[in-house]
C-alpha cells in the first residue's frame, strides 16, 4: 500500500462510534472518508463536524468512498452482515467487540474473511479488544507466559466495575434485549473480561454458568453472572461479574505452583514461594504451615500506549505494510464468545457443558428467547451525544 493516508470509514455513530471519531481526527496517518448511521441526522451531523461524507446505508459507504478499512461500531447482531459485505469488496475490517452475538455468526464472518483472502491476499481483520493494551493486563500476560508462576492451579476473577443504571438500559431500544443485543453483561460489558481471561489462560474444557436475568434492573437479559471453569491442565477458574455494584471490584488472583499473583487497584503483587508448593505439600513433615512471604510489587508502565487508539494505530501500521502483530486478529474474537455463549448455555440447561460447545443448540435457544419475549421496553430516554463514554472504560484494576 502506498504512503498516502489510509482511508477509513465508521459505521455506527452511537457513543462508541463517536469515541472512534474523536481519536481518528487526531491521527495524521488516516483520512476519514465517510460516516454511516441509520439515523440520518446523526450521520449528517457527524459528517459536518468532521468534514466528511454522510451515509445512511453501509453498502453506500462501502461502494462510494474508496475506503481502505471500516470500523464497525453498530449493535452486535449487525457485525457479521456488515463485515461480510466489506470483505466481499476487499475492504479491511476493525470490528468492535463482541465479534458476534453467537458463535455460528462468528464462524460465518471468519469463513467469509478466509474466502475473501483468496481474492484479496492482504485483507486484514481485527477485533477491538483494547483492554489487552492496558498496562496491568499486558504485564500479567508477560508474567503468565514466562512460566515463573509454575503450573497454574486456580484463577479467581471478581470484576464488578461495570455499574450500569436503569437510565443506561433505557437509553436505547436495542439495549438489554434478546432481539436487540442478544444478552446482557456477558454480551455488552464483559467481552473484554472474557477475552483477557482466555488470552491469559486459554479456554477451559468445562463450563458451569449461573446467570441471573434482570435481577437488579428492569431488563430481560443477565445482569449478574457467576461461572466456574475447569481446564485440561487441572487449573480451575472462577468468574464473578455484575452491573449492579458500587463501588465495583476488579480483583484477579492467579495461584501457581511457584508463586501467587494478585492484581487489584491497577497494581500487581507477586508472592514468591520459598519452594514449589506441590512438592512441599507432599514432602513436609509439618502438619500446619504458614509461609511469611513479603509480596513484591511488579513495576507497570502507566505511560504505555493503550486504549482504542492504540489498537487502531497498530491496525493502520499493518495496512501500511509493516510486519507487526495486531492486538487481536479477527479469529481471536471466538474465544470470549465461546465463554459467553457457554456460560449462558450452561445456565439455561442447569448443568455443566463441555467445550467446544454445541453452537446450534445455543443459537436455537437464543432464537426461542427472541420469539417468546414478552418484554416491553420503556420509552427511550435520549442520551446526550456529548456524554463522556470513556467513563465506561476500564482504566485501573
UniProtKB/TrEMBL annotation:
InterPro entries attached to this UniProt entry: Gfo/Idh/MocA-like_OxRdtase_N (IPR000683), Gfo/Idh/MocA_Oxidoreductase (IPR052515), GFO_IDH_MocA-like_dom (IPR055170), NAD(P)-bd_dom_sf (IPR036291)
Domain GFO/IDH/MocA-like oxidoreductase span(s) in chain numbering: 137-261
Domain Gfo/Idh/MocA-like oxidoreductase N-terminal as annotated: residue spans: 6-119
Organism listed in the record: Paenibacillus gansuensis
Pfam families in UniProt: GFO_IDH_MocA, GFO_IDH_MocA_C3
Matches recorded under PANTHER family: D-GLUCOSIDE 3-DEHYDROGENASE (PTHR43249:SF1), UDP-N-ACETYL-2-AMINO-2-DEOXY-D-GLUCURONATE OXIDASE (PTHR43249)
Entries under SUPFAM superfamilies matching the protein: Glyceraldehyde-3-phosphate dehydrogenase-like, C-terminal domain, NAD(P)-binding Rossmann-fold domains
Signal peptide interval: none
Name used for this protein in its record: Gfo/Idh/MocA family protein
Amino acid at each position: 500500500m502506498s504512503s498516502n493516508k489510509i482511508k477509513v470509514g465508521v459505521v455506527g455513530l452511537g457513543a462508541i462510534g463517536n469515541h472512534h471519531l474523536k481519536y481518528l481526527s487526531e491521527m495524521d496517518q488516516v483520512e476519514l472518508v465517510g460516516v454511516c448511521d441509520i439515523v440520518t441526522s446523526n450521520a449528517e451531523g457527524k459528517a459536518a463536524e468532521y468534514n466528511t461524507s454522510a451515509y445512511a446505508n453501509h453498502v453506500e459507504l462501502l461502494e462510494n468512498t474508496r475506503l481502505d478499512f471500516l470500523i464497525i461500531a453498530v449493535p452486535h447482531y449487525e457485525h457479521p452482515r456488515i463485515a461480510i459485505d466489506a470483505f466481499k469488496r476487499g475492504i479491511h475490517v476493525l470490528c468492535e467487540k463482541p465479534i458476534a452475538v453467537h458463535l455460528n455468526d462468528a464462524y460465518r464472518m471468519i469463513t467469509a474473511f478466509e474466502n475473501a483472502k483468496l481474492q484479496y491476499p492482504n485483507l486484514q481483520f481485527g477485533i477491538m479488544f483494547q483492554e489487552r493494551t492496558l498496562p496491568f493486563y499486558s504485564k500479567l500476560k508477560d508474567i503468565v507466559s514466562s512460566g515463573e508462576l509454575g503450573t497454574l492451579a486456580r484463577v479467581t476473577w471478581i470484576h464488578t466495575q461495570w455499574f450500569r443504571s436503569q437510565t443506561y438500559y433505557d437509553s436505547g431500544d436495542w439495549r438489554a434485549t434478546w432481539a436487540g443485543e442478544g444478552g446482557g453483561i456477558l454480551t455488552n460489558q464483559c467481552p473484554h473480561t472474557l477475552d483477557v481471561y482466555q488470552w491469559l489462560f486459554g479456554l477451559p474444557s468445562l463450563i458451569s454458568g449461573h446467570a441471573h436475568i434482570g435481577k437488579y434492573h428492569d431488563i430481560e437479559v443477565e445482569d449478574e453472572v457467576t461461572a466456574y471453569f475447569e481446564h485440561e491442565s487441572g487449573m480451575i477458574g472462577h468468574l464473578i461479574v455484575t452491573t449492579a455494584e458500587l463501588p465495583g471490584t476488579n480483583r484477579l488472583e492467579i495461584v501457581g505452583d511457584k508463586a501467587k499473583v494478585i492484581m487489584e487497584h491497577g497494581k500487581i503483587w507477586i508472592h514468591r514461594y520459598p519452594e514449589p508448593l506441590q512438592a512441599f505439600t507432599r514432602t513436609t513433615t509439618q502438619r500446619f504451615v504458614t509461609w511469611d512471604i513479603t509480596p513484591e510489587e511488579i513495576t507497570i508502565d502507566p505511560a504505555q500506549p493503550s486504549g482504542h487508539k492504540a489498537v487502531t494505530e497498530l491496525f493502520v501500521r499493518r495496512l501500511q505494510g509493516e510486519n507487526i502483530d495486531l492486538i487481536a486478529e479477527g479469529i481471536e474474537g471466538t474465544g470470549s464468545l465461546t465463554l459467553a455463549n457457554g456460560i449462558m448455555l450452561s445456565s439455561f440447561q442447569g448443568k455443566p457443558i463441555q467445550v467446544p460447545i454445541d453452537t446450534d443448540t445455543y443459537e436455537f435457544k437464543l432464537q426461542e428467547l427472541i420469539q417468546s419475549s414478552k418484554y416491553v421496553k420503556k420509552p427511550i430516554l435520549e442520551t446526550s451525544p456529548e456524554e463522556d463514554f470513556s467513563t465506561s472504560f476500564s482504566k485501573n484494576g
